Amino acid sequence: MIGLLGWLTGCGNSSTDSQTKGLLTGKITVGGQPARQVMITAIGSGGVAGTTSTDTGEFTIPDPPKGKLKFTIFGSQPGVKPAANSASVVPPKYAGPNELEFDYTGGSQHFDIQMGVNGASAK
């Protein structure tokens, strides 16, 4: 737990960034629009692999562990219809266990998450 806190507080350190061995990037959309003001957590077999937030719908998780990753996504205002050009509403089913999975094999990889009211698809 302490190691995870150290990693989270160390984000953005250029010496740490230069040592990144792998990178998972992607884009989260809700109804075809970029998901704004959301937090995404990747969970590997050993627990939380990384957490990041986005205001643009795009995310980056440095050094995720190889293997199956599962994802939870939280919006800043779940269940509340946002004003125009503000945070997207994340369907509540994505805040807990859901069907979002990605098999990370190492290096730089890309994973897009398209959420809709009736389900999600991943690319």
Characterization of this structure:
- With 123 residues, this protein is mostly beta strands.
- Helices cover 10% and strands 44% of the residues.
- The protein has a domain at 34-111.
- Strands 1, 2, 5, 8, 9 and 10 form a 6-stranded mixed beta sheet that branches. A 4-stranded antiparallel beta sheet has the order 4-3-6-7, with no helix packed on it.
- Mean pLDDT is 75; it is low at 1-18.
- The protein has helices at residues 2-9, 14-17; strands at residues 23-30, 33-34, 38-44, 47-54, 58-62, 67-75, 101-104, 108-110, 113-116, 119-122.
- It has 2 helices and 10 strands.
- It is globular and about 30 Å long.
- A hairpin with a 2-residue loop joins strand 1 and strand 2.
What does the overall shape look like? Answer: globular
Count of distinct strands: 10
How many helical stretches?
2
Question: Unreliable segments (pLDDT under 50, ≥5 consecutive)?
Answer: 1-18
Gyration radius (Cα, Å) is: 14 Å
Query: On the 0-100 scale, what is the average pLDDT?
Result: 75
Q: Mind describing the biggest β-sheet?
A: 6 strands, mixed
Calculate the terminal CA-CA distance, rounded to whole Å: 31 Å
Strand content: 35-45%
Structural class: mainly beta
As a percent range, the share of helical residues equals under 10%
Which sequence of SSEs, written as H and E, runs from N to C? HHEEEEEEEEEE
